[in-house]
Structures are given as structure tokens and as C-alpha cells.
Amino acid sequence: MAPPSSSPLCLPLPPLSIQPRNRRSFPLPLTSRFPGGVLSVRSPRFPSSSSSSSSSLELSRTVRLRCSSQKQSAEESELELERLFSNLNQATLKREPGSLSSAVFLVTGTTVGAGILAIPAVTQNSGFIASAVTCIFCWIFMVATGLLIAEVNVNTMCELGSGGVSLVSMAMRTLGKLGVQVTCWSYIFIHYALLIAYVARSSEILTNSLGIPLWESATLFSLVMGGICYFGSQRLIGAVNGVLILAIVLSFAALVAVASKDLHWEALLKANLEAVPMSIPVIALSFVYQNVVPVLCTNLEGDLTKIRTAIVLGTAIPLGLFLVWNAVILGTITSADVSSDNFIDPLQQLRSSNGVVGPIVEVFSLLAIATSYIGFVLGLSDFLADLLKLPSGQSKPLPYLLTLVPPLILSLLDPEIFFKALDFAGTYGVLVLFGILPAAMSWSDRQSNSITSMGLPTLVPGGRLTLALIGGGAGWVIISELLENLGKT
């Protein structure tokens, strides 16, 4: 295949090392040292910023490396190397390219989680109009931070020549040891908090439906969903996510059709802007998917166009679901209930007021939790494997045990932890890990002298101003929530 017409992407010069990695990818075997010259790689997968076409070209089995010296103008030496594709089957060593549809399903499934169940509860005081505007702004914010993570992740894979890098490796490269510490503790905190919330709510649903003890339902959910994550291949997990999302759409349509019969349209006109700040942490948490962005970059082999499409489309679907869901729920509850001082879960009110809606709400809730649970288990297990410096390739049981067992135990200790875990994780976890840190890492990456950072295009426009707005906005919400919580004590 002929190389693209755009200028070649220049990469740094570590020793050439090509190793197949199962279910992991590296964008391109990086460069080799050649005396007196700079080695540049023409890669269709990583078009340079001056490329006129953003579409990916079909990859060839060979990569042409051209080594040239400043003194060498007439003569050029070329070296052809056999390319080992990023996603390789460990047994057959055949390429298993990542699927864009599977990537979209993974993002959508991770986003549509337990957070959607809490949105009506935290937005009932602000009203539908104000909460809808807040949802759109939070969606834009979270898409931007996800693209920043993808940008830094691909740059880090290029520079390190790694088959897949986690947020820890990204933080070490861009922010140093302090950034690593903040990233590690924030990542672990938010993932465990959300997994605890997911297991707690799913076990409650299964206990009510199956009539089994709470510990049995929690164990059953963890074993089934955790087993899919551990034993399943990329294609199987993508297929399971696709089926679950289809079931979510069907149950969601049934829920809207039944509940909308009692919809009070005048109730949707309410807008209380003063109550908006209190809803931001949970709404932002509802759009969390960034934990699987490193997995996306690996599975899609660093294709920036596909990564951008997967993130934007994969989060746009949940945005539509959130808006319709919130309208239906807030339009069916009475204003007397909303104005009461006691906290009322609108879903619980909906279950008690309409016997037909109850089972549909339970099915939708369980499916939403299951899809998000898969994404968070994959993200945390990969993170722990990287943190423990376990060899890449085959799935290791230790990261999955550390991912599945603690949330199971803690959810059984406090079955009522659902809303508390979501609010705490949204305020002090999501906005630090997926708000401030992506902006800081991208700022450092763009200002560095790294050849890969200068050669690859940016996914989020606006330069330093955009990064400052993202990091400053997240910091403002965290400080506001902290001061308000301190004032209540």
C-alpha cells in the first residue's frame, strides 16, 4: 500500500522492540536508532496535523521506514520491516481489529449506569428546564475531558512504544509522581464507590424480584457480570453490551409509553436555578465513561477519528435517554412531593403509584446497572494490572479479584449506601479524576517538547483557554460543594 500523501509523523528513537500482545494494542512499533539520521514513520493510523484527510487508511502488513540525514539529500536509504498488528490473538497470532460499533456500545453501556436512576432525585428541585440545560453542559464537559484523555493516551503509547497505557502511565509522563498519586487514589476511590453503589442497588432489585437473601443476590450479580468481564473476549463483551443496550432501549420505550400517560406538561416548565449546583456532581457522574477511554484507544489501535466518533456518539445516546427519562419522571410526580422537606425518590413514588410501571422500572434499572458495571470492572481491573506491573497478554485473576470482592463486601455492610456513594463519588472523585486531571495532563503534554505530542493532532480545540475553563470549572464545583457541606456540619 502506498503511504499517505501527508507529511510523515516523526517519533522518538528508542530501540526497536516488537512483541505481540493479546487483546492489547500498540499503535505502531516505534523507531530504531540509526546513526546520523532521524527516523520518521509514515503511519496511516496516525495522520499528522497537516493531513488533509482524517479518514483512516487500510493498514498494510509492512511499514516503510525512511532514515535520512540532513547531509544526505540525493541518496536515501529505506528499510522495510514486517509489521505486527496491535490486536493479536494469542493462539493464532492473527489480527483481531477493534470494532467501532463495539466501542460505541462500550461507551454507551458504561455511561448508562446507576447514575440515570439518581438524576430525577437530584433534579426535582431545580425542575426539568434547568436540569436539561445542566445535562447538556455536563455532557459537553465530559466529552471534552474524554477526548483530552484519549489525546494524551495515544501520545503516551507512541512515546513509550507500549501496547496500552493506563491513566497512571499518562500521569507519570505528564505530571510526575504527584500526578500519579492523585490519579491513583482518585481512580481507585471513584471506581470502588460506584461499584459499591451498583452492587447495592442490583442486589436490592434481585432480592425483591427473586425472593432470595441479599447476600445471595449480590454474589450472583458479581459472579455473572464479573465472569463475563474475565472470561469474555472483546467480541463477546461487545456483543453482551450490545444486547444489554438493546434491552435498555426496549424497556425504556415501554417505561416512557406507560408513564407518559400521567405526564403533567405544566410541571416541566419549572426552573429553579438556585438548586442547579447541588445536582451537578450526580449529573456529571452519570456521564462517566472516561475510565474505558484507555481501553478504547487500545482496541481501536490509536485511530483518532474512530476514537472521537466512539466518544461523541457513545455519550450522545445516553444524553438523549437522560433528557427523556428526566422529563417523564419529573412530569409525573406531584409538586407537593417535590416541595416537601423530606427526601423523596421519584422512582419509588412511581413504583407505588402505578403497578404496571414497577416491574418495568426494575428491569430498566438492572440493565442500566449491568452495562455500567461491565465498563467499570474492565477499567479498574486494567488499572490495577498496570499498577501491580503484571505482564500484559493473558487475563490475570488477581486484578479481577481485587475489583470484584471489596465492592461486594462493602455493599452488604450498608445496603442503603446507593445515593451516598453516588453523591460523594461525583463530587470528590469524578470532578478531580475526569475534570481537573485531564486538563492538567493535556496542558503539560501540549507544552512539552515531545515529538509525538507535536506531531499528532489535538482532539479538543481552544488551546490553553479551553483547558483552563475545564479545570477551573471542575475546581469551582468541588470547592462550592465542600464549603456547603462544611456549613451543614
From TrEMBL:
Gene Ontology terms describing biological process: amino acid transmembrane transport
Protein name stated in the entry: Tyrosine-specific transport protein
UniProt keyword annotation of Membrane present: yes
Regions crossing the membrane: 103-122, 128-150, 178-200, 212-232, 239-258, 278-298, 310-333, 363-385, 425-444, 465-483
InterPro entries listed in its UniProt record: Amino_acid_transport_2
Biased composition regions of type Pro residues, renumbered to the chain: 1-17
Localization terms from the record: Cell inner membrane
This protein's record includes keyword Transmembrane: yes
Keywords: Cell inner membrane, Cell membrane, Membrane, Transmembrane, Transmembrane helix, Transport
Region entry Disordered, spans: 1-24
PANTHER family: OS07G0662800 PROTEIN (PTHR32195), TRYPTOPHAN OR TYROSINE TRANSPORTER PROTEIN (PTHR32195:SF26)
GO cellular component terms, semicolon-separated: chloroplast inner membrane; plasma membrane
Membrane topology reported for the UniProt record: Multi-pass membrane protein
